[in-house]
Amino acid sequence: MTILTVGSSHAASPQAVSKPLTFLEEVEAATPGNSRLSMCIQCGTCGGSCPSAADMDHTPRQIFAMIRAGLRDEVLSSNTPWFCVSCYYCTVRCPQEIHITDIMYTLKRLSVQARKYDDSRAPDFSRQFITWVENYGRAYELGLMSLFILRHNPFGAIRMAPMGMGMVTKGRLDFTPKSIKGIDGLKAILAKAKELEVSNEV
Amino acid sequence: MKYSFFPGCSLERNAAAYLQSTLAIAKPLDLDFQEVEDWNCCGATEYISLNKTAAFALIARNLAQAAKADGLKEMAVPCSACYLNLRKVDKYLGEDARLYKNVSTALAAGGLSYQPGSVTARHLLDIVINDVGYSAIQAKVTKPLKGLRLAPYYGCFIVRPGFGEWDSQEYPTSLDRLLKVLGAEVIDFPMKAHCCGGHMTQVSEATGMEMIRRLIKGAVDYRADAIVTVCPMCQMNLDAFQPNMNRFFRTSYQMPILYFTQMMGIAFGMDAAALGFGSEFISARPVLAKIGVEAPPEQPAPKKSRRDDKSLPMPKMGEQ
């Protein structure tokens, strides 16, 4: 069990830490800036402000208690971060100024790395979105939507068809992805970033 | 007033109406936009869900590209998601030394560098309201939006996260005032800063549809003629998915979703076709008719090849 200490451990370099990180420390270290996660007072303002809390396995408050309790597997297999719509209501209302939305993104990343979340729709949507970005430098809606729907909801494609057709007739879809000029430079940047993300992972 | 300009992927095509109307109103308001050279996608909310360093480097490349434009520190951003991402990355690069080191190393691999704080991303609404100002806008109004009841809709990203504050996070009013200056009647829209659901329509249909329903119903309850938005993602969710939402809940809402720049253009007496009207799913025709503005000619509706009901296709007797 972790003893809660005020202040964040993220500033300490991972190499300097001799004993293995607790799950709380791991989440704090993987979140940009100072997440203030250890300051949670379990008031529940986050869940009470959340527009999609009704569909979550655990409210954000419960997730934070579970992180402190070191329930790594339970937290990373919860659907909670994947139902975060990133609206930041919780973040601005939190009396302890915890960066809740950023922590939800961290939990998404950790759960993908640990392969814990069994519903692949949300992670796949993110993956397909960024595949276009990584190869062309721009998002590509037609490619994203058609591939994603075919893979995850082929029968729903019929329901989506009128919307897709509307996008086409209203001139709101590109038929081919656009590429930026500096795509080679961008690819080099992203490759280097991914390499650093792995080598610095804590 | 000159700014560098970051349109974002949506405005290239899906939200072309937003780009068109933005450029149309820029001229009379004396706003000069210089597009960031060879910008890339900001990664929306997707890249950060998978890889922190790469997501930050992707966005930092845009900041580095924008910083190349000499003498232009401020960057106008019409898309709320791009705006949030650009501001967030600039802020965290200044605060998190290890992240900054990694992102700098990654940028160097592509021959770029960026110093946090060199570029300030500002949302287009912020620039219109605080740099141009209400009185300068009022002076340009030749066709007041008299008799229109409008619901101002801010969404999440421009007011909430505290990466740059110029309006209340809970109860913003800047767009309300702008629409009043244009001569419209503005409803006190209780859902004005609620979320449109982002990508939930794709990831969890029931969640996404419910979030859209709340917003549309909120505006209908207040007898709004249209919802006015500042974000291409909000526009797409509320407009393009509104027919799907109606099917999902068996409702029949018809709430037009328009960009604030389109409403400004109309109030400045510009031609509706030059402001991108006509590309919306829920037609803005009734809104324009109410203030006596001619709508651009309707595009032919796609031929209906499928029945809407879910029963199996059966041979049918003549329906005479």
Summarize the topology:
The complex is a heterodimer of chains A (202) and B (320).
Chain A: H1 23-30, H2 45-49, H3 60-68, H4 72-77, H5 89-93, H6 100-114, H7 121-136, H8 141-152, H9 156-169, H10 183-199
Helix pairs in contact in A: 7-8
Chain B: E1 2-5, H1 9-12, H2 16-26, E2 32-35, H3 52-67, E3 74-77, H4 80-95, H5 97-109, E4 120-123, H6 124-132, H7 134-140, E5 149-153, H8 174-181, E6 185-186, H9 200-203, H10 205-221, E7 226-229, H11 232-240, H12 242-249, E8 257-259, H13 260-267, H14 285-290
Parallel strand pairs in B: 1-2, 1-3, 3-4, 5-6, 5-7, 7-8
Helix pairs in contact in B: 2-13, 3-4, 3-5, 4-5, 6-7, 10-12
3D architecture notes:
The complex is a heterodimer of chains A (202) and B (320). Chain A has helices at residues 23-30, 45-49, 60-68, 72-77, 89-93, 100-114, 121-136, 141-152, 156-169, 183-199. Chain A is built from 10 helices and no strands. By secondary structure, chain A is an all-alpha fold. Helices cover 53% and strands 0% of the residues of chain A. Chain B is of the alpha/beta class and 320 residues long. Chain B has a 4-stranded parallel beta sheet with strand order 2-1-3-4. In chain B, strands 6-5-7-8 form a 4-stranded parallel beta sheet, with helices on both faces. In chain B, β5, α8 and β6 form a beta-alpha-beta unit. In chain B, α3 (52-67) crosses α4, α6 (124-132) packs across α7 and α10 crosses α12 (242-249). Chains A and B meet through α5, α6, α7, α8 and α9 of A and α1, α3, α4, α5 and α9 of B.
